[in-house]
Amino acid sequence: MTIMTTVGVQEMARLAGKVAFVTGAAGGIGSEICRRFVEEGASVLAGDISSAALEKVKILCGGSDRIVPLLLDVTKSESITEGLQVAVRAFGKVDILCNAAGGSTPLDSRVTEAPEEEFWRAISLDLFGTFLCCKHGIPELIRVGGGSVINFSSMVALMALPDRDCYTAAKGGVSAITRSMAHEYAENKIRVNAIAPGLTLSERVQGLVDQRPELKKLADQCLLSVCEPNDMAELAVYLAADESKRVTGQVIPVDSGVTIY
Q1: pLDDT tens digits for 84-117?
Q2: Is the confidence at residue 55, as pLDDT, over 60?
Q3: Closest to 152 (Cα-Cα) out of 91, 239, 82
Q4: For 181-215, what is each residue's pLDDT tens digit?
Q5: Cα-Cα end-to-end distance for the chain
Q6: Span 205-232, average pLDDT
Q7: For the purposes of burial, counting CB atoms within 10 Å of the CB of 2, is it exposed (0-12), middle (13-18) or buried (19 or more)?
Q8: Looking at the annotation, which residues are catalytic?
Q9: Contact 94, 144 (CB under 8 A)
Q10: 3-class DSSP state for residue 229?
């Protein structure tokens, strides 16, 4: 009876046999995605620019041998290609590409006031980083006969949010390229979607909500309480799994209803 129960649990794993390449893996959302992917049976290459934070991700995943932490800079082609090679050597393939690396800074502002350097920082990390990961990662998905690309846009690409014009421009680009890639690579059996998080209480954001009035306002607009990293991870699991085999070209908000205002 015990053996049958164990086998049953293994058969229910939604990502069993799949290999995911996850960027931004040490962030609040990225680390939770890694945890859930491993929990659902996937093997994961967890890439980020912080080695210390990556060790915490390994611990979060229970020290599983199905997760390989790796220093990775999504703004550098050679870093991405080397990371993909590590994933293939470790697990034999890549069939899930999850581009969670990104973020904004307090320097962001309205277009007439934001520093030009902040604009290019946001474009380089959020948009160019996604572009590069898809440029080098999609051929790996084609090689194994298809898979799932999960990009990260933002609610700022779906609504007007003042004083975030650099980040808005970058995430709007992610939404647009998600749709075009979904059309382009459907013939290769590759689904391309994007998650658009609302205000999400990662450890970093929790410390900012009480300090920044615009974040407090967003938190007060949440209809079903403020989002948590696991909310994004659960959608990522769905988009990575075969159960979403007819879902592509979508930018899906997870924002507790904020964008309906």
Answers
A1: 999 999 999 999 999 999 998 889 999 999 999 9
A2: yes
A3: 239
A4: 999 999 999 999 999 999 998 777 766 667 677 77
A5: 52
A6: 82
A7: exposed
A8: 167
A9: yes
A10: helix
Cα 19 from Cα 112, distance rounded (Å): 44
CA distances, 113 to each of 153, 165, 168, 224 (Å): 23, 10, 14, 34
Structure tokens at 2: 């015990």
Q: What share of the chain is helix, strand, coil (3-state, %, to 5)?
A: 50, 15, 35
For the entire predicted model, the pTM comes to: 0.92
Q: Are 191 and 245 in contact (CB under 8 A)?
A: yes
110: Cα separation from own chain's centroid: 26
HSE-CB for 88 with a 13 A CA cutoff: 13
88-126 burial by CB neighbour count: b if 16+ within 10 A, else e? bebbebbbbbbbbbbbbeeebeeeeebeeebbebbbebb
